From TrEMBL:
It comes from Paludisphaera mucosa. Residues 204-229, 648-667 have a biased composition (Basic and acidic residues). This is Uncharacterized protein. Residues 162-171 have a biased composition (Basic residues). The lineage of its organism: Bacteria, Pseudomonadati, Planctomycetota, Planctomycetia, Isosphaerales. The chain crosses the membrane at residues 20-38. Keywords: Membrane, Transmembrane, Transmembrane helix. Residues 151-251, 570-591, 638-697 are annotated as: Disordered. Residues 172-199, 675-697 have a biased composition (Gly residues). It comes from the Bacteria.
Length: 697
């Protein structure tokens, strides 16, 4: 209930409040008016104003003697200066122009753009794919200090020396890598069909040729990573790399690696550079390197923190390669500093190291070897076929001049899909000179685009391709570990030490770091001895059920990976020393060797095989995939399941590659495509103009 007094005050305020406010304001007004009327007025007459004005005018017109002015200045401490003498002294002084130059150079307006440059926005690689591999690579032997060991004992040149040598790691120009392999392939397997009889092949020959073509298709497909989407002669020795004194010693080193491939939206990168730098002539990213980080899966299933992959350990391999393996992608989609070179493998084969959508179509499609090619030169598809030899570009500009001494063509144009220049080479060049020119146009000329400004003359990789490939090899992966990877692009700072940049733009750092990519899927580096469950043998009254295992043994010394099947029942250890065929790469054939296949895994239990169906179902039995419970040496237990092991991609690659290497051990290996690939396109013109990754670490 409301207070009675409060209610009365409220009604009084509402009724008389405005009247009280007006009364108070009136009282204040009259008080101020009274104060104003009582103050005295200013007593100034016109005569007083006139007299003050005349006095002021008299002071302004009065002349002061010079002596009085001087005395006043002296009294105040102001001394006279001999200006004439100082001027005469100054005229005799020698002036140096450099002392008066501008602190920075004048900025010249760039054509069609403003003066203020921004920092280009970098983007991350996408579709990061990781795949494990093992093998033996040809490398230079290093001592304890990391220096190359010199060959002290003279020895006969091995037959494998016919393989092409690696060109300079950091230079441009010159063909690299796979030209020799392609040449030997053409003159070997391919020429057998060309130079043979001109008649059609027999049904038996046709069957063999088709089988060989299918094998080549599978070999090419195994090296490609990602989906196949539509795409928006002996090498001359480089004088700069000619050996001085005793040559370094070459050895085969067993390696484990994880091959990382990804794509980079190079077209978007170009757009970002053109927008930021205000000039299309210089708007090309200068890629410096590819940073790679990885996480390791812990025992509890969690992932460790991201850590840098140790680049120095990888460079111990990549910076000491006598030979590089062949490339399937052209240089225009393979930035030098963002792609690790492929070491030449004497054991094992490369898998998933090329982006399928970036490999030229003619290198992925093996033509029907039973049909005569465009050149009409025999059942192997002909030298002049559209995809059999020289890639996708035109070969002929002035007619076919025949085979030169090096197997080249003595006139016309010879430019494969790996050339980046896009122009043809016309008339009058021998085959080898044309091959060297093709490499120059594919790699060297890409660094000369743009106008005449100093920064447009920088020699670095340039391309107008929309999408390019990045690739890294991690040789530090440990057996029986699981990883996932991410990567980022690092570029040279285009605004380094420039003044014409927007506020906040980094002009001091030598390099700019791009954003990290999304993490790859989990990848497992298999143990050096791995047992895969492939089936069971039915139990008999005298024995227990046995499981069939395929044991894959990797030798870290020479890189050989050999699979062999074993049977084991509960209570038995999988694998034991057995003799197996070991492939070779020098053409001497496979060699028998005793290998210890002991996996140190004890079988605890086995299940699987044919199981009877309940009554009422059609059929009598159903096949259940084999499953085995195994005890590891550290006391932990693992499960091997046929449903997972039989389709395992790594296991299938190991088995298929081993069979292929055994079959081709009587041939000299020319590349990881195998000894008899016969692909001139992939070797010499399709993607062979390759080089090592130029590094700035």
């Amino acid at each position: 209930m409301a207070n009675a007094t409060a209610e009365k005050l409220k009604h009084f305020g509402l009724r008389f409040g405005d009247k009280i406010a007006v009364a108070l304001a009136s009282v204040v007004f009259f008080m101020c008016l009274g104060k104003a009327l009582t103050r005295p007025t200013i007593d100034v007459s016109p005569d007083q104003i006139k007299k003050a004005a005349e006095q002021s005018d008299s002071n302004l017109r009065r002349k002061v003697p010079t002596e009085e002015i001087v005395n006043t200045l002296v009294e105040q401490g102001i001394k006279t200066s001999d200006f004439a003498k100082e001027a005469e002294t100054s005229s005799n002084m020698l002036l140096v122009a450099n002392d008066f130059k501008a602190r920075r150079q004048w900025v010249t307006p760039e054509p069609g753009a403003g003066l203020i440059r921004d920092q280009p926005e970098l983007i991350a690689p996408t579709n990061v794919y990781a795949y494990p591999g093992r093998g033996g690579a040809l490398v230079y032997e290093l001592d304890a200090d990391g220096k190359r060991v010199v060959e002290t004992e003279p020895k006969a040149v091995p037959k494998s020396s016919t393989i092409r040598r690696n060109r300079r790691r950091r230079g441009g120009g010159g063909m690299s890598g796979s030209s020799g392999g392609g040449m030997s392939s053409m003159m070997g397997g391919g020429m057998s069909g060309m130079m043979g009889g001109g008649g059609p092949p027999t049904p038996e020959q046709e069957k063999q040729l088709k089988a060989e073509a299918e094998r080549k298709r599978k070999e090419i497909a195994s090296r490609l990573a990602g989906k196949d989407e539509p795409a928006d002669e002996e090498e001359k020795e480089d004088p700069a790399t000619k050996a001085q004194g005793p040559p370094p010693k070459e050895i085969t080193k067993g390696l484990r690696w994880v091959a990382l491939t990804a794509t980079l939206d190079h077209n978007q990168m170009l757009e970002n550079y053109r927008k930021a730098l205000k000039n299309q002539a210089i708007a090309h990213p200068n890629y410096r390197r590819l940073d790679v980080q990885r996480q390791t899966k812990q025992k509890d299933g969690s992932w460790s923190d991201w850590g840098d992959v140790v680049a120095e350990r990888n460079l111990e391999v990549l910076d000491n390669l006598p030979m590089n393996d062949e490339e399937l992608t052209p240089e225009t989609v393979r930035p030098e500093n963002l792609n690790d070179p492929l070491p030449f493998l004497t054991a094992g084969l490369w898998e998933k190291v090329h982006i399928a959508s970036l490999v030229p179509k003619e290198l992925k499609e093996v033509p029907d070897p039973t049909k005569t090619g465009a050149g009409g030169m025999g059942p192997m598809g002909g030298m002049m076929g559209s995809s059999g030899m020289m890639g996708s570009s035109s070969m002929m500009e002035g007619g076919m001049g025949g085979m030169g001494p090096m197997g080249g063509m003595n006139s016309g144009s010879m430019m494969g899909s790996g050339s980046g220049g896009g122009s043809k080479m016309m008339g009058g060049m021998a085959g080898m000179s044309m091959m060297m020119g093709g490499s120059s146009m594919g790699g060297g000329m890409m660094g000369m685009g743009g106008g005449g400004q100093a920064e447009t003359l920088a020699q670095f990789w340039r391309s107008e391709e929309k999408k390019v490939m990045v690739r890294a090899l991690d040789f530090t992966a440990q057996p029986d570990e699981r990883y996932r990877y991410r990567m980022r692009v690092v570029v040279y700072n285009p605004n380094l030490n420039r003044e014409d940049v927007s506020p906040g733009v980094d002009a001091k750092s030598e390099e700019l770091l791009g954003p990290w990519s999304e993490a790859s899927a989990e990848v497992n580096m298999p143990p050096d001895v791995t047992a895969y469950a492939l089936g069971v043998l039915p139990a008999s009254p005298k024995s227990e059920m046995k499981a069939v295992f395929q044991v894959v043994k990797f030798n870290p010394e020479d890189g050989q990976t050999v699979p062999r099947n074993f049977e084991a029942a509960p209570g038995e250890i999988i694998g034991d020393p057995r003799t197996a065929e070991v492939p070779t790469s020098d053409g001497t054939g496979a060699k028998p060797k005793t290998i210890d296949f002991n996996s140190r895994l004890l079988v605890l239990d086995v299940t699987g095989g044919f199981k009877p169906l309940p009554s009422g179902f059609l059929g009598n039995v159903i096949s259940q995939p084999a499953a085995a419970l195994l005890l590891r040496p550290d006391g932990s237990v693992e499960m091997r399941d046929e449903a997972d092991d039989r389709p395992d991609e790594v296991r299938k690659d190991v088995e298929g590659n081993y069979k292929r290497e055994i079959k081709e051990s009587n041939k000299i290996r020319s590349s990881s495509m195998g000894s008899g690939s016969g692909m001139m396109g992939s070797g010499m013109m399709g993607g062979g103009m390759m080089g090592g990754r130029g590094r700035s670490r």
